[in-house]
Structure formats: structure tokens, C-alpha cells
Amino acid sequence: MISVRNLKKSFGDHQVLKDVDMDVDEREVVVIIGPSGSGKSTLLRCIGQLETVNEGEIAVNGTVISQHDEHDKYTRADIGMVFQQFNLFPHYTCMENIVLAPTKVKKMPLPEAQELAIELLREVGLEDKASAYPSSLSGGQQQRVAIARALAMKPKMMLFDEPTSALDPEMVGEVLEVMRRLAKEGMTMIVVTHEMGFAREIGDRVIFMDGGQILEQGDPVSLFANPQNPRTQAFLSKVL
User: Fold this and answer.
1) Which of 17, 58, 91, 135 lies most in the core, judged by the most C-beta atoms within 10 Å?
2) What are the residue boundaries of the ABC transporter domain, all occurrences included (predicted)?
3) Torsion of CA 61, 147, 202, 191, to 10 degrees
């Protein structure tokens, strides 16, 4: 579903991604782990077309996408993204946050978008918060609304950039539960996370990045129990 080839990305003189190759199959859940500054979030933002790549290409369902191509807007609409910070519009209710993109981008009729929003809020356990403003919600609730907002565009895949890192520990579980349900429903997902237990549980494949490169990847059981790369070994010895 996603193919990344020879991807390079620099910010000024600092090269963040170095010849990254990566494939993600339909319905697969790929979890990316690694130390801070290893390029994980930048890779995700390049796939989501939030960063312009310097070299290489990204293809979704066989179509090469480019931030500069107007035809790619439909491909980009197939990719939902959830960030560390919730990025909800504070002056909009939860309902208004969710219906904004479907009505503006996909020209969905407002009643249909509102019905979809209620359905999605129900899925994330917040049906009673449709008229609430973000400031009245906990961090975990805001992140669940952000997930519902991304799902409102009916994406074919979801990207999660450390979705629990800004949450208090007791709020983490409620967000991870929503992600577990999406995985069970067959959503294609790429997840950057520091939650190693979650990575082990939900991932079909775990990728370890450091220094802008993919150093090792494999199924969670094998990678966590018997990492082959010395850098992976050193990292996991500190975080597990």
C-alpha cells in the first residue's frame, strides 16, 4: 500500500533521513521505534506529505505522490494523521472540529457529516461530548476526538506520531484502546511510539530507526527478544 524508496530529507545542512526504503502492506500495522532525533517523525511527515522530500519517492497504491502536484490531493486525503499535540480548533466544538474537513474538502453535506461525526464519537467513546469544547476535555479525550477527526475523511491508512507522548500516564490507555480497535478492524497503520508494550502487542512489524536510517526490522516477538543490530540491542536494553 505504501512504498518508500531512497528517501532523503535534510533541514539545512542536517540530513535527517538517509536513503530510507520501506514498504507497508494493506491492513498491516507497522510500529517505528528508536531514540529521539532518529528521523521517525520526519519519515511519517514525509509519507503524510507534510514535508517536502529532497530525493527519493513515496508511492501510495502504486501512485507516486508529490507535494507539488495538484493531482495528489486525492491521494493525500487517503492518509489520516494524528499528532503528539491534538491540534483541535479551540473555538469549535468537538462536532464542529470533526465535520470541518469532510464538508470543506470532500464537499460532504453537513447533515451527513454530522451523522458521521456522531458515529465516530461513539466509536471513540465520546458520543456525549459532541457539543463540548476542547478546553473542557482531558488530554486523552482530546486525542480521541483528534482520531475521530482524522477518520472523518475516511482514510485508507492512518499515521500516528507519538499519539500518547503528551498525555498523563493514566490517559494513555484510553487512546491505545481506540488504536487497538482500529487495528483489529483492519486499518493500515504506521505508528511512531515510545510505548514498547503497545508496539509488541499491536505491531505486525516493528522497525528500529537511528541516525536517519532503518537499522533493523522484524516481527515484534523476534525483534524484542533477539535483536541483531548492536544499536537496537543497546536501545532496547535501556527501554525494556
Assistant:
1) 17
2) 2-236
3) 60
HEC profile of the chain: CEEEEEEEEEECCEEEEEEEEEEECCCCEEEEECCCCCCHHHHHHHHCCCCCCCEEEEEECCEEECCCCHHHHHHHHCEEEECCCCCCCCCCCHHHHHHHHHHHCCCCCHHHHHHHHHHHHHHCCCHHHCCCCHHHCCHHHHHHHHHHHHHCCCCCEEEEECCCCCCCHHHHHHHHHHHHHHHHCCCEEEEECCCHHHHHHHCCEEEEEECCEEEEEECHHHHHHCCCCHHHHHHHHHHC
Sheet order of strands, 29-33 included: 79-82, 157-161, 188-192, 29-33, 205-210, 213-218
Q: State pTM to two decimals.
A: 0.92
Which residue shows C-alpha cell 507534510? 50
What's the rounded Cα separation, in Å, for the pair 208 and 192? 10
Interhelix angle for 94-104 vs 139-151, to 10°?
20
The one-digit pLDDT tens for each residue of the chain (240 residues) are 899 999 999 999 999 999 999 999 999 999 999 999 999 999 999 999 889 899 999 988 888 876 555 556 556 778 999 988 888 999 999 999 999 999 998 899 999 999 999 999 999 999 999 999 999 999 999 999 999 999 999 999 999 999 888 888 888 888 899 999 999 999 999 999 988 988 998 899 999 999 999 999 999 999 999 999 999 999 999 988
Domains by residue range for the chain, with CATH = 2-237 (3.40.50.300)
